[in-house]
Amino acid sequence: MNIDMIRAAASRLKGHARRTPLLSSPFLDEIAGRTVLIKPECLQHTGSFKFRGGWSAVSALDDATRKRGIIAYSSGNHAQGVAMAAAAHGAPAVIVMPQNAPKLKIDNTRALGAEVVLYDRAGGESREEVGGKIADERGLTLIRPYDEPQVIAGQGTTGLEIAAQAAEIGVTSGDVLVCCGGGGLSSGVALALEAEAPDMRVRPAEPEGFDDVARSLASGTIQSNASQSGSLCDAIITPQPGDLTFPIMSRLCGPGLVVTEDQAMHAVALAFKRLKIVVEPGGAVALAAALFHGDKLSGDHVVAVCTGGNVDADVFTDALKRFDT
Amino acid sequence: MNIDMIRAAASRLKGHARRTPLLSSPFLDEIAGRTVLIKPECLQHTGSFKFRGGWSAVSALDDATRKRGIIAYSSGNHAQGVAMAAAAHGAPAVIVMPQNAPKLKIDNTRALGAEVVLYDRAGGESREEVGGKIADERGLTLIRPYDEPQVIAGQGTTGLEIAAQAAEIGVTSGDVLVCCGGGGLSSGVALALEAEAPDMRVRPAEPEGFDDVARSLASGTIQSNASQSGSLCDAIITPQPGDLTFPIMSRLCGPGLVVTEDQAMHAVALAFKRLKIVVEPGGAVALAAALFHGDKLSGDHVVAVCTGGNVDADVFTDALKRFDT
User: Fold this and answer.
1) Residue A271 DSSP one-character state
2) % of residues, chain B, pLDDT over 90
3) Is the pLDDT assigned to residue B98 strictly greater than 90?
4) Do residues A264 and A131 share a domain?
5) Model confidence over B260-280: pLDDT tens digits?
6) For the stretch A121-155, what's the b/e string if a residue is b when 16 or more beta carbons lie within 10 angstroms of its beta carbon?
7) B169-187 confidence digits (pLDDT tens)
């Protein structure tokens, strides 16, 4: 992994991924006690930054490999990002999803052109076995959600944009808060900033109870979460940091930040009211850290990446009701 | 009014107004039966395109005039745009608002540093009379919401961006649907397109029962609305097209489009789900026309401007409940 791979990914994404703007609001600045610059990746194609990694990985394949097709395991944002990127390249895509995944997510992934293969998670079927068999039969290429160099490179293009957009308004230093699951986005952005804005530093943000990255960074070794479900921040819950992403984060990132689920929901409501963007709870933890954990930050500015917006109406409505402020 | 004034406004706005992106979703394209390109001015500063006109007008004043102060009358979005622009220029601002404007808009206008004066719209008071009187008393400069050359010039910068951004993806013709109140945005965008994308044409969009512009364009003379209140689309309800804006619209715009309030609310829900943006009902009528009135459009592409996002949580929640699709 290096900056050249990220720059090459940026070239492949040009004209395909959206260059999301940097947003801000004087009302949020007042809460945070400093200027908060928001990178709204919820406005990216398929509603999350995952489209960048999906496009990067699919576009990096040689024609023959791509023509045989790709496969991914995901019931969430990675599935949609890969499905849309594959369809745009004319590449067949198989997405392996649990039978009991929400019908809407299955329908959306199909509507984006992918073949959805369901497996019986509750009945003990392994998605690797189900998917591996299909991949072998058809010669499909697996695209992992974060421990995949071309996926990290694609996510890193977010960092190139942050460096350029912040510099345009005179900001060249400070913390860049990134909602963190397996670390694909955090490590990609960290590599981009190392090259383009060396005085800016990634701080991974996670929900309480699922702070594997914060604990891993603090201890210097990979730590796991006790649980992998039960959070409203489902989009960024992973077992542990990746084998590729952790060494990068360990070398380049500052200490992790941990927010409560209530703080994430409060940030969802404030993003509605002050930024006019739809953010899912897991995509709002970095903004929540910027707003409610300012004592752990330094400097006049902070950047927060809002990573995704694929939230059900009932969860969103609940956030607005609970935090009408 | 001419294109040079719009280009000059664009220079004054550079680095201050946001260049909002063009968004799209394959799911919306499927509903509309053509590609729908969305210009999300809800992401503009203060949550609506009105910031452009406000900044244009305030920045065009000479220093001495600006220092004496600004006055504006508005149901909300123009108020916030002018208030923020005035504050950034160090100019005092008085905003005349109807008593029954959404609380969020009144609160925001105050928080942005303006003095708010309320009047009784339902009871028949005229905001023009109230505003004019205060302007005379205090020697303030009145910035009208649409019948004001520098305001039209500022709103027109939206059209310069649409022409450039559409051309980047190969789109140089087709209808551009604009949510229309007094016609400041519609006429400004129409002038910009006349110069920069002459095969694109503005189609003003309005809610049923408040279709003064559509009827005025059809008859060739200025028509009024029977009522000035009672619509969820409050942001774009005005008595009639402006004396400056109507001749421009009459010369350059295609026939107006009229949508039901339900269609506007449905578009609000679809913008939440598919675009991850927060749009107010009045700001969604152009998108509603693109989605649900395709039979009145032609061509493979349509542009819809989502003009504002300053919606109260209860109205937004209601849209999501009623149109869970």
Assistant:
1) I
2) 83
3) no
4) no
5) 999 999 999 999 999 999 999
6) eeeeeebeebbeeebeeeebbbbbbbbbbbbbbbb
7) 999 999 999 999 999 999 9
CATH number at residue A260: 3.40.50.1100
Per-residue model confidence (pLDDT) at position A18: 96
User: Do B290 and B209 share a structural domain?
Assistant: yes
- Count up the domains in chain B and report the number: 2
Range of the domain at B158: 3-48+149-322
Residues B192 and B286 in one domain: yes
Whole-number Å distance between alpha carbons of B311 and A278: 13
ipTM of the complex: 0.95
In chain B, which residue's Cα lies nearest the Cα of A270?
B313
Q: Which two tokens stand for residue A176?
A: 């860049």
Question: Is the domain of B172 the same as that of B127?
Answer: no
Assess whether A318 and A198 both reside in one domain: yes
Of A23, A108, A278, the CB nearest to B276: A278
Q: Which of B142, B167, B193 is the last residue of a domain?
A: B142
Of the given ranges (A202-211, B11-20, B22-31, B117-126), which has the lowest mean pLDDT?
B117-126
**A38 and A159 in one domain?**
yes
CB pair distance less than 8 Å for B273 and A313 = yes
> Residue A323's closest chain B neighbor by CA?
B313
Which chain B residues contact residue A84 at CB under 8 A? 26
Question: What's the pLDDT tens digit per position in B16-46?
Answer: 999 999 999 999 999 999 999 999 999 999 9
Same-domain check for residues B25 and B162: yes
Nearest Cα neighbor of B177 from B319, B262, B284 is B284
**Model-level pTM?**
0.95
User: Which of A25, A29, A276, A323 to mutate to test binding with chain B, by most B CBs within 10 Å of its CB?
Assistant: A276
B325 has a pLDDT exceeding 70: no
Do A163 and A103 lie in one domain? The reply is: no
Report in angstroms the alpha-carbon separations of A311 from A27, A47, A76, A105, A205.
Answer: 24, 10, 11, 11, 19
* Helix (DSSP H) and strand (DSSP E) numbers for chain A: 14, 9
Task: Give the span between the Cα atoms of B163 and B22, in whole angstroms.
Answer: 11
Q: Which of B123, B142, B161 is the last residue of a domain?
A: B142
